[in-house]
Amino acid sequence: MINSNLLINNKNWQRLVRSWNSGKLPHALLFHGPEGVGKEGHALELAALLNCIAATENGSCGSCPSCKKTKSFQNGNVKLILPLPRGKIKSSDDSSEKAFSESSLKEYLELLKQKEADPYFPIRLKGANTILINSIRDLKHDLSLSSVNNEWRIILILQAEKLCIPSPEAAHSLLKVLEEPPEKTLFILTSSQPGAILDTIHSRCQNLYFPPISAQILQERFIQSGVDTVQATIIAQISGGNVRLSQKLIEKATDLMEKLFLLLNAFFSSDPSIWNKCIDTTARLKTKDISQMEQLFRCAVLFFRDLLYYSATNSDNEIIFKNQMGKIDKLTKSYPEADWHSCIQHIENTQNYISRNGYLPLQIICMILDIQKSLRGEIYEPFCLNDWTPV
Ligand SMILES: [Zn+2]
Predict the structure, then answer these.
(1) Cα–Cα distance, 199 to 205 (Å, whole number)
(2) Spatial separation of the C-alpha atoms in residues 277 and 266, rounded to whole Å
(3) Do the Cβ atoms of 232 and 320 come closer than 8 Å?
(4) Which of 214-228, 294-308, 375-389 shows the lowest mean pLDDT across its residues?
(5) Ligand 1: distance of its center to the CA of 2 in Å?
(6) Residue 239 to residue 242: CA distance in whole angstroms
(7) Domain regions of the chain by residue span
(8) Segment 143-200, tens digit of pLDDT
(9) Ligand 1 is a single-atom ion; what residues have CB below 5 A from it?
């Protein structure tokens, strides 16, 4: 295999390898599924396998000249099609090379290098909103010539929904060649929005679904690479099976924990200045990137899930915030009548209201008051920052 850091979907991969080994690989595949699950990585692995000179029954060797060239995007038989900026393109007859200015070409090469190191890295060029019809015309021209060394030609179409968005002209242009491709040519389309792809494209491709990566696999991967167990568990739980997102969250884990500490402090405090800090932090996150606010709320839900679990079982087996056992023990004893399940619902409802554009300060204050009502007891001492930042 060319990428040792790709988490292989065994079911899909074995199916592809079996088809290849038995000479029954379809001429067009569509890998679809949510973002960050390795669709493009698997497409590159398959591209490498087809021309590998020392392939095993499980995949490419990863080290022959063809594999190396495929991995570094220098294989003339592996053609990459993806959304490009318009650049100096004036008409549909212009070469797609005109899409690149000197700076965007530099940007593109830099993105390819990052993709080479990390199969989950997205190649997104600035101002690239669609797959240009010019790219498809150039592709058709290339396909009319013979391949290098008479090897397999693999056409990777990334973000394939952009063939159809905003207009389907590139998709229409692709249809004919997709239907009757030249010999020894494989199309692999990848998309996280397959619903936006024309039915006529779908019907010419064999569809393969790539599901989210399980939280357990993500967690093990982080722990193996030396990430603190508690952080690894939390991030694995809140990243929704998206490897790319989980990597980003790990980089900012300390920051996330600090914000979580602020939020939890507000739940267990009657001090309005602490509430205001919590409102400010949440509002800033919402303005910057609402998904970050949602991740913070999901962390808070995990903490209350621990409180619920511990109050019911008095065991720390399944506790996620193991580094907060002292607090968890104290809180469950201080609020023996608390309805932890309702607390979780208050947090989830508030997240939904805010995501649907509810008035944030009011929603946060209502959430804090609702949670405090569900605690059914005197408000507890505030948390201390040192408890929440890893040493
Ligand atoms: Zn090889």
Answers:
(1) 10
(2) 8
(3) no
(4) 375-389
(5) 8
(6) 6
(7) 10-209, 252-387
(8) 999 888 889 999 999 999 999 999 999 999 999 899 889 999 999 999 999 999 999 9
(9) 52, 60-61, 64, 67
Given this model, what pLDDT does residue 330 score?
94
- Say which residues have a Cβ less than 8 Å from residue 243's Cβ, sequence separation at least 6: 7, 36, 37, 38, 120, 213, 218
pLDDT over threshold 80, residue 293 = yes
223-258 residue pLDDT tens = 999 999 999 999 999 999 999 999 999 999 999 999
CATH architecture, range 10-209? 3-Layer(aba) Sandwich (3.40)
* Average pLDDT value for residue range 352-367: 91
Dist. CA 156 → ligand 1 center (Å): 18
44 CA distance to ligand 1 middle (Å): 12
Task: Report CA(45)–ligand 1 centroid distance (Å).
Answer: 10
Q: Distance from the CA of 71 to the center of ligand 1, in angstroms?
A: 10
Residue 119 pLDDT: 97
115 CA → ligand 1 middle, Å: 19
**How far, in Å, from the CA of 67 to the mean position of ligand 1?**
4
Going from the Cα of 69 to the center of ligand 1, the distance in angstroms, rounded, reads 10
Whole-number percent of the chain with pLDDT over 70: 96
Distance (Å) from CA 40 to ligand 1 centroid = 18
* Averaged pLDDT, 103-113: 96
Q: 59: CA distance to ligand 1 center in Å?
A: 9
- Quote the tokens at residue 12: 């899909």
CA of 259 to the centre of ligand 1 (A): 47
Q: Is the pTM of this model over 0.85?
A: yes
What is the crossing angle of helices 272-288 and 360-375, to 10°? 130
Longest dimension (CA), the chain: 79
